[in-house]
Amino acid sequence: MVDRQVVIEYLNNFRRLLSKYLKSGVGVQTISYPFDNGVIIVVELGSGIATKDENRTKSNNLRDALSRTNLFEETDFVPEIPGTSILLSMNKIVILKTVDSKQWSEDSAKEDVTNVINAIRSKVQNK
């Protein structure tokens, strides 16, 4: 399991790096769902919402953690996470990370923000 302090440092880096793309007054709330081999982080952006981080209790596995987010209809098929996976779901960003320490560095946070911004730009261009 990933140490809570490591998750906090990653979230601080992610938020700092993401903030340059956000309008003034947009808050970033996160909920972390730790499980045996990693953490699911649900990021919600919103105008006027308070910036805060929450941490849920540890789940036994990825399937249980996904179920606890209440974002997915079907959690029966759960693939292996190759390091970091990022999903855009409604107004939320869902980040799935393994316990690998390289996945929690500032460089990883920078890469994750870049991937999020590119995914959003791609969705906007395809509309």
Would you write up a description of this structure?
The chain is an alpha+beta fold and 127 residues long. It has one domain. Helix content is 35%, strand content 29%. It has a five-stranded mixed β-sheet with strand order 3-1-2-5-4. The longest helix is centred in the last third of the chain and has 20 residues. The N and C termini lie far apart (39 Å).
Structure characteristics:
127 residues; alpha+beta; 5-stranded mixed β-sheet; 5 strands; 35% helix; 29% strand
Summarize the helices and strands and which ones pair or pack.
Layout: H1 4-19, E1 26-35, E2 38-47, E3 52-55, H2 62-69, E4 84-89, E5 92-98, H3 106-125
Parallel strand pairs: 1-3
Antiparallel strand pairs: 1-2, 2-5, 4-5
Radius of gyration over all CA atoms, rounded: 14 Å
**Count of DSSP H/I helices:** 3
Overall number of strands: 5
The poorly predicted ranges are none
Average pLDDT reading: 91
**Beta-strand percentage?**
25-35%
Number of domains: 1
What structural category do the secondary elements indicate?
alpha+beta
What's this entry about, in short?
This protein is 35% helix and 29% strand.
